[in-house]
Structure formats: C-alpha cells, structure tokens
Amino acid sequence: MDSHGAAFPELNSWSSDWKSIKVAVVGLGKTGFSVADTLKELGSELLVVAESGEIEILDILEVLGIEFLVDPDSEKLSAAVAGYQPDLLIVSPGVAPTSQLVRQALLEGIPIWTDVDLAWRLRDRFIPNQEWICITGTNGKTTTAEITESMLLASGVRAVACGNIGKPILDCIRDPAEFEVLVVELSSFQLHYLESIEPFSSVVLNIANDHLDWHGGFEPYRAAKGRIYSKTKVACVYNLEDPVTEQLVEAAEVQDGARAVGFGLGTPARSNVGYVEDLLVDRAFLEERADKALEIASLQDLSSFGVLTPHLLSNIAAATALARSYGVPPAACRKALREFEISPHRIQLIAEVTGVRYINDSKATNAHAAAASLRSFESVVWILGGLLKGADISDLIGQFAPRLRGAVVIGVDRVAIKQAFAELAPSVPVIEIEGSGEVMSQAVSSAASLASPGDVVLLAPAAASMDQFKNYQDRGESFAKAVHNLSVGEK
C-alpha cells in the first residue's frame, strides 16, 4: 500500500479502536508532539523518533510514558523503526520523501500519514459535523487564513485558524471550545503525504517555484498543491491572475455541486470575487449573480491593514470568497476587515524617517513573495539575502532593477546575489554587509544612505533567515529595532 492509499478505513472516528495499531511518529516539534500526545490519549502503541527535541518536550514524553529515541544519526532512527515494526508511520511535515525512514516505509508497504490525516479522522471529537476550509499557495497562506477566521468569528461561527499557521490542528480538534469550522493552512509538505480529506471549500492562492529541492522539481510541487481541491464539497477558489491555479481546479476530482470561484484585483465576472473601483464585491454567492454584485467593503474599510499592496488585496478577496462560501453575511465580512490587524513581518510599515518609509517583509523568504513586495513600490532600496536553499533569484533582480534606487546584500549566499546584480543590474548601487555582527543595524544604516525622500527601504530577503537569525521573525524584529534606532538618531 502506498502513502496515498485508504489505510485503516475502520479508524474513522475519535471513538474507533485506536488501541489496535502500532504507530511510529517521526519528528518532535510542535506537530510531532501533538501527534504523540493525541495517540497516547487514544491508547495506541507508540514509538517517537526524532533527530532532535527540546528537553521540556522529552520530559513530558517521559511523564506520559511514551517511548522515544532522539538521535542525530538517521541510520539509528531507521533501525529503531524497523525493529519496532509499526502498522503506520506519521511524519512531521518537514520530513522529506527522500528520507530513509520514508523510503523504508514505502518499500515495506507501511502507510504514511501526517497530523492532518489523523485530525481528519478524529474531527468528531466534539463536533460531529465539523467543517474544514483549506488554504494553500506559495505565498499569502497565513494572512488569508487569519482573515477568513476573523470573518467567520464576526458572524458568530466558532472557528479557528490552524495547521501550518503554527497552531497544531490536533490541538484544535481536542479543544473543548468545540470549533465548528477549522480554517486549515496546508503546506506543500503536508499535501504531498495527504491521504484523503473533504474540504468544505479550498483555495490555491498562487503557485511559484519554492521547496523544489524537497519535492524534486516544480511538477511534483504543483501536483502537491493541487491535491487540496480533491473532494472539495462547495467551492474551489482559484486566482484569476494565476492560470495554474485554475488548471489545478479543472484537473481535480471534486464532489458533485462544488463550484469554481475565481478571485482577483479586477472587476469580477459572474461567479467571481473582485474589486470595482474602490469597492470589494462578491458576484459568486448571490442568487442574482448574472447581473448584480454584493458590496462587501470599501478600501476605506481596509485602512487597518496599513500598506494595501496588490498581494494583500488579492489575499483579502480570496478570504472573502472562502467566508462567503460558508454563508458569512457581507456585514460580518466588513466588520472583520475593519477590525483586522495584520500579523507582523508581512509588508509592515515600521516608520517613516526623513521622508523614507521603512517596510518589514521578513516573511518574504522566497522570490515569489519578494516579487509581490517589490511590485508594490515605485522606488526601492532593497535589503535582501540570506540562505537561498539552491534557489536562483537572478530573474527577480533583472525584473525589478528599474525600480531599485539601491540594494543592500546580507547573508551567507551574498556572492551569487552580487554576481546577479553585476550581470543584470550593473547601474544599481550595491552595498555588501560582511561578517555576522550587527548585520541588520549595518544594513539599515547603509540603506538609509542610499535612500532619498519618497523612497521605500524594503526588507524582502527572498531567502531563508537561519544563517544569521533564529527565524524570519527574529530577522524582522532586528530590522524594526534598527529602524527605531535610526529614527531616534534623527531626532
């Protein structure tokens, strides 16, 4: 049986006999721990293996009486799992298909799940008819999930955003708050392994090159994203400005009655959500959609979002389509949009100093996300670089060179970036920040020296952060602190 087969059809409820199976859990971050904790409560026989684990989590496993092995040697982990002879392998999303444990399980016909597969079977823990609204895409997933959640909450629905957003889905399944709707952010990693779920509505926000090393190429990555539409019940939401997302809907096996609903920045045709001048409108979820549109909100209602970039307006339209598919009234959508606070590190205005705006988009960890930022501003001093993970950002540099007042390059992969500037944008001034000391402070000072009133200094690294920072949040906070110090110095 491969990882996408219908394994254990009898285990389809919280009340099923989960004591009947032996499970090996791979990975011990938030996700892996939530799986182990849940299976322990269900009474399954359990072994947890991981290359690393925090002391606090290992202590809890000991208290719970869960058997575990933590060892950086993957050979030892594989041997332990082979000796354990599990009926089922549940992997954390980051565990690559090329890992020895995964290859070994496939060879032996052991089914492979993620926490999402387990949660789908346990979703009747408190609510027998709990629905899932599922969201994926290369960029914008978290913001779209948070907006959708806020719209559902504004209409009185007990909803929560979870999954890849950072809140383990199993914690929400087991929460006595009894959530009626889970807004589930799904990564391509989770979708790759996904066995079978039936979303109420689903969306692929956009598709661009990302995680190609993990998936082994663009086609497997694209196919993984498209799996989100499979068996969708009500609405398959797609991006009118990204033809690949529509192709994925067309190729999907959906449930009878499921509709394709487009979202975009232009005037919407029938069955779409979009914008007419300064109004967000719905032409999908009303009886008279052939010749009428419902007003959802004005751009003025969106003032709490700060910088209204095209990428953000696109995410707002997608969230509106998902919320409206569930029957959220226009007034509740508008209320949620008026009160929404966007999460930090996503095209976040930090300050304006001597006529220059400083924008933190540390969450732009790949070229597609950085492009969305760069497209939003006319004259930019761009702070970029970090861990490229094999990605080539030359096209990005060539495409946006006309908008660049200058560039400040940080991170371990500086050489490749500097070379791309020399070849594709030789007229753009480039400052390289060497060393690993006060990297961001130096970067911001250098950017300020290149900027003129009316410019934007934009942190949109197009790279991962772990070479010089703990994570993208740490990188964004360092940027904000450096900007603050700059503004204090100006006073």
From TrEMBL:
Residue ranges of domain Mur ligase central in the record: 135-323
UniProt keyword annotation of Cytoplasm present: yes
Domain Mur ligase C-terminal stretches: 345-462
Keywords assigned by UniProt, alphabetized: ATP-binding, Cell cycle, Cell division, Cytoplasm, Ligase, Nucleotide-binding
Protein location: Cytoplasm
GO MF annotation, one: tetrahydrofolylpolyglutamate synthase activity
One GO cellular component term: cytoplasm
Cross-referenced HAMAP family: MurD (MF_00639)
NCBIfam families associated with the record: murD
Protein name: Unannotated protein
Species of origin: freshwater metagenome
